[in-house]
Design goal:
This protein is an alpha+beta fold and 136 residues long. The chain contains five helices and four strands.
Length: 136
């Protein structure tokens, strides 16, 4: 995600452009974020981190006012871009899939509230085009 009008321009982001961008590293305790950092490192994909932030919620304000970029999950980027102030770009490579599992104690398998919550979580995280019910 970069600010609207960023010099990288429109269109698809290339690997060369990805490598030349300077990034905000938005801190979080979410395990998926660390998995992506590790995957980039393992794949030999380098990014120039220009600024490290203690929390990801500050990153959009920094990106909006600079030429820095940030890597966010698509759903989060779309949420921050409701006013159209950013240019959302796909990564120029396919990151590995991140598996999300829902575990509950067998004692709660028949609890209607737990069933509802579990189905809601599966529906939110199920890949597009798949049956959310298959994850229960």
């Amino acid at each position: 995600m970069v600010r609207r009008g960023h010099p990288v321009g429109g269109g698809a982001l290339t690997e060369a452009q990805f490598s030349t961008l300077r990034y905000v590293h938005a801190g979080t305790s979410a395990p998926g974020h660390h998995m992506i950092d590790q995957w980039l490192s393992d794949a030999g994909i380098r990014r120039q981190v220009a600024l490290r932030l203690g929390h990801f919620t500050v990153a959009p304000e920094v990106v909006r006012n600079t030429d820095l970029a940030v890597i966010f999950p698509e759903f989060l980027s779309r949420r921050f871009n409701k006013a159209g102030e950013f240019q959302l770009m796909s990564l120029p490579f396919d990151p590995p899939p991140i598996e999300v599992k829902v575990h509950t104690h067998p004692r709660f398998n028949n609890d209607l509230g737990v069933k509802w919550l579990r189905s809601l979580i599966v529906a939110v995280f199920a890949p597009e085009g798949t049956s959310a019910a298959s994850g229960l």
